[in-house]
Amino acid sequence: MACAAVIVPGLLRSSVGTICTQAALLRLTSGALRHLTLTSIMKSKRKTDHLERTANVIRREVVSAAKVCGAAAESPSVKRLHLLVADKDFSFKAGQWVDFFIPGVSVVGGFSICSSPRLLKQERMIELAVKYANHPPALWIHNQCTLDSEVAVRVGGEFFFDPQPADASRNLVLIAGGVGINPLLSILRHAADLHRDRANKGSGYEVGTIKLFYSAKNTSELLFKQNILDLVNEFPEKIACSLHVTKQTTQISAELQPYITEGRITEKEIRDHISKETLFYICGPPPMTDFFSKQLENSHVPKEHICFEKWW
């Protein structure tokens, strides 16, 4: 599954059918939490392990108990989780990931948060989307995780979008491949929340335009497509998307057809959005992130305007 390694630092919520009580989380005592995280860290030794790959990446010190409050299939290969995190010291920036500690599983997972920080603030909830893989944390999520399962999480990552109210307005270009959509969806949702705030209050950070380029094998593997289209329709002058499919074998629905391009995201499409006010966020397989970051550099985009993260 996608255990992220941060390479370059960067600057909607969903309804949950099952209600979790914060008091239930208290059953996971601080002593048990320490034992769980320390044991997992000591045993998590694989060469390609998330903890090793991200050893030099900034993490928060807080390790928080979490409870699974909802689970659903987001695609044939991806499972979506809602987690209740009652700990008020737990917070994250849009685009960051969590170390994911599972009782009885020695390997620590690393999964990007796909929800907005607003959902956590309002409901103490975060959302993950995990692709099936022959990796212990992903296998546990797909085969053993149930409602009320208890885990622990810790925030890390230098790939995020966290503008302050007085910051200069920036356009965003988000480039996603496969489950690399997760942190970029968090950024997209956060930008939408910021735009709502400014519209309602008349103050706050001014979001520029946002263009999402998102590529997957076929439309069934385009994650969160309805959430994305809802935001495009809510903010037609601010948010646009181009959804790409590389191996589509079935007919594309009429609803999706206006947004779909068959074939990979091209260099020209990205180059057309270059400006001095634009930040580029890229997340996907290493060859994809390497290609677009290099092309942007060759087009004289400042390195500090190119933020990317690789997943494996």
UniProtKB/TrEMBL annotation:
<protein>
    <recommendedName>
        <fullName>Oxidoreductase NAD-binding domain-containing protein 1</fullName>
    </recommendedName>
</protein>
<dbReference type="InterPro" id="IPR017927">
    <property type="entry name" value="FAD-bd_FR_type"/>
</dbReference>
<dbReference type="GO" id="GO:0016491">
    <property type="term" value="F:oxidoreductase activity"/>
</dbReference>
<feature type="domain" description="FAD-binding FR-type">
    <location>
        <begin position="50"/>
        <end position="164"/>
    </location>
</feature>
<keyword id="KW-0520">NAD</keyword>
<dbReference type="Pfam" id="PF00175">
    <property type="entry name" value="NAD_binding_1"/>
</dbReference>
<dbReference type="InterPro" id="IPR039261">
    <property type="entry name" value="FNR_nucleotide-bd"/>
</dbReference>
<dbReference type="InterPro" id="IPR001433">
    <property type="entry name" value="OxRdtase_FAD/NAD-bd"/>
</dbReference>
<keyword id="KW-0560">Oxidoreductase</keyword>
<dbReference type="InterPro" id="IPR052128">
    <property type="entry name" value="Oxidoreductase_NAD-binding"/>
</dbReference>
<dbReference type="InterPro" id="IPR017938">
    <property type="entry name" value="Riboflavin_synthase-like_b-brl"/>
</dbReference>
<dbReference type="GO" id="GO:0005739">
    <property type="term" value="C:mitochondrion"/>
</dbReference>
